[in-house]
Amino acid sequence: MDFPTRFDVIVVGGGHAGTEAALAAARMGVKTLLLTHNIETLGQMSCNPAIGGIGKSHLVKEIDALDGAMALATDKAGIQFRTLNSRKGPAVRATRAQADRILYKAAIREMLENQPNLWLFQQSCEDLIVEQGAARGVITQSGIQFRAKTVVLTTGTFLGGIIHVGMQNYSGGRAGDPASLGLAEKLRALPFRIDRLKTGTPPRIDARSVDFSLMQAQPGDDITPVMSYMGNRSLHPQQINCFITHTNERTHDIIRAGMDRSPMYSGVIEGVGPRYCPSIEDKIVRFADKDSHQVFIEPEGLTTHELYPNGVSTSLPFDVQLDLIRSMKGMENAHITRPGYAIEYDYFNPQDLKYSLETKHMEGLFFAGQINGTTGYEEAGAQGLLAGMNAALQAQGKDSWTPRRDEAYLGVLVDDLITMGTKEPYRMFTSRAEYRLILREDNADIRLTEKGREVGLVSDERWAAFCEKREAIEKETQRMKTSWIVPNTPEAEAINPKLETPISHEYSLLDLLKRPGVEYSDVAHLKNAPETPVAEQVSEQVQISVKYAGYIARQADDIERMRRQENTVLPADLDYTAIDGLSNEVKQKLQEARPESLAAASRIQGVTPAAVSLLLVHLKKRA
Ligand code: FAD
C-alpha cells in the first residue's frame, strides 16, 4: 500500500496539547503523524473562548518563545485583549485574550496544514503497538497500523468520558464528540495509576435574546497588547466588548432548590473538579454567605451570536439551568443554545512520568495535557510542546530536555506534577513559581528561545528576529549608560520635574531611569536618541532590567544558592511548627518525617519548593 504508515513520532489527539506536540516534533525535522478523531475539531476550545490570564499567559509566551502555535493563533483570533495586573509589578502582569473560536481553530489548522514533515489523519486510535515493553505505534479504529519510534498521547477529557446534565449521563469526550473507550480500556490494563477527574462548562446563550443595556460593558485595553513575540496589532481582528452581569438571591434560591438533582451533590459524579474554576452550584455551597457572584458575558466570536457566560459552569438539570440564567439581569429572556454539562474522565497519575513526559512504565510513550491531570488550554499546550519535542529528541537518539523551575513556568508545571502529583485538575498560577521576578511573561524569549534553537524547534525567521531584539536591547542599554545629562541644560530642565531632587551633577540616562517615577519614555529621547525609536519590546526590557535590577540579582543569587545548598543538613532538633510561612500541612509532614537534609525534605510529597525556600531562610536566621 502506497500510504505512509511509518513515522518517527505519532501524536494522538488534535487538541491544544496534541497540536503543539505535533508541530514541535515536525519543526524539529522528524516525520510526524497527528492522528485525531476529527480534523474539523483541530485546536477546538472545549470550554471558554479565551487564552491567557494570570499564570497562563506566561505559559503561552513560553510556548511562543519555543516557536509554538498558541500565541500567534491568539493574535489572529483575539477579539478582546487586556493586560491584567497592569498596575502591579512585571512578574505578575499577564495578557488575556478573548478569542473568536472559529478564527482560533482556523489559525491552528492553517499552521498544521502548512507544517513540513507533518501528516494529518482522521481516525480514532484504539490501541498501542507495544514491542519489548516499548510503544512503537498505534492501531486505529479500522485496524490501520501506524508505526513510530515514539508515541505521544494527548487525549484530553476523552478517555472514558462521561457527560452529566442533571441526573442524566451518557458517554462522550465533550459535547458533540464521542468518548475514547477502546483506548481507555487498553490503557487501564497497563501498570499506570489511573483516577477520575471532572470539569464543567456553562450553558451558551444566544446574544439576540440578551438585553445588554442592563449589563455593564467591559471593553478591552485601548492599547491592545500582543500575545506573540512575532505578532503585531495588525494581525488582530475587530475588537469587541464583553459584558458583566451578576447572580442574585433568586439565582441562588433556584440553584439550592435544584441541588437534589445535581449529579455533583447527589454522589453521581465521583471525579474531583477544578477548585479554582468551580461550578456555580459549588460556589453557592462553598461561599454560602455571598449573595451575588460576577458573571462575565463573553462573545464566542465575530460571526456567531453565541455567548459564553463565564462563571456559571454547571451540571444541574436543564430546567434549573434555564431558570438560573433567566434570573440574572439582562438575561430575562435568554435563549440557551447549548446546555451546560460536567464531564468525568480518566487521567494518569503524573508521578508515573519522567521529566521529559515519557512514562516510566513504557519506553517511547509520552503523555501530555489534560490526560496528566491538568486543566486549561495553556497548560495542555505547554506540555504538548515539551512532550512532542522530547519524543522527537528520543527518535533522533538525543537526550531529553526540560526547563528547570528557575527557567520557565513550564519547568514549574512539570516539576509540580511529577513531584507532587495531583488529586484535582491542576492549573497554573504565578504563586506556584518561587522565582517569579525572573520568570516574567515579557522575557520568555530571552529565557528559552536560544535553547529552543539549539534543539531545533525555532525557525530561522524567529531566530533572526530574536537575535536582532537581543542586540537592540544591548545597544540601547549601552546608549543609555553612556549618554549623560548635565545640570542646567535644557535636557536637565526637561527631566527635573519628574525627579524628587533636581539633577545636581552628571547622570547617565540609565541612572535617571533607575529613579522612582521615571519611565523609559521620560528619558530615552533626551540625549543621542536613535533616529528610529526602539521597538516597545526592546524599551520594555531595558526598563525592567534597570528598575528591578536589585530584586532580579537577589533572585539569581537565591537560585544559585538553592542549587548549591541542595544537600544542606537539617538539624535533628529543628522545630518546624515555629517556622513562619509554612502551611500547617507542611509543618506536620516535616515534623513527622524529620528529613536529614533539605534535599530529602524537598522530596516529601506536599513540601513545595516555596516551602523549601522558607526552610532555607529559617536555617540562615538560625546560623
Ligand atoms: P483536548 O482539548 O480535550 O483534546 C483532546 C483531543 O484528542 C481531541 O481532539 C480528541 O478528539 C482527541 N482524541 C481523544 N481520544 C482520541 C483517540 N482515541 N483517537 C484519536 N483522537 C483522540 N479548562 C479551563 O482552563 N477552564 C475551564 O473552565 C475548563 N472547562 C472545561 C469544561 C469542559 C466540559 C471541557 C471538556 C473542558 C474544559 N476545560 C477547561 C479544559 C480544556 O478544554 C482542556 O484543558 C484542554 O482542552 C486540554 O487540552 P488537551 O489537548 O489535553 O485535550
UniProtKB/TrEMBL annotation:
Subcellular location: Cytoplasm
Cross-referenced InterPro entries: FAD/NAD-bd_sf, GIDA_C_N, MnmG, MnmG-rel, MnmG-rel_CS, MnmG_C, MnmG_C_subdom, MnmG_C_subdom_sf
Cofactor(s) the protein requires to work: FAD
Cross-referenced SUPFAM superfamilies: FAD/NAD(P)-binding domain (SSF51905)
SMART domains tied to this protein: GIDA_assoc_3 (SM01228)
Principal cellular location given in the protein's record: cytoplasm
Binding site for NAD(+): 273-287
Domain of life: Bacteria
Cellular component GO terms, alphabetical: cytosol
UniProt entry tagged with the keyword Cytoplasm: yes
Biological process according to GO: tRNA methylation; tRNA wobble uridine modification
Keywords: Cytoplasm, FAD, Flavoprotein, NAD, tRNA processing
Gene Ontology MF annotations: flavin adenine dinucleotide binding
Domain (tRNA uridine 5-carboxymethylaminomethyl modification enzyme C-terminal subdomain): residue spans on this chain: 546-617
Subunit structure: Homodimer. Heterotetramer of two MnmE and two MnmG subunits.
Record-stated family: Belongs to the MnmG family.
Record protein name field: tRNA uridine 5-carboxymethylaminomethyl modification enzyme MnmG
Organism: Marinomonas piezotolerans
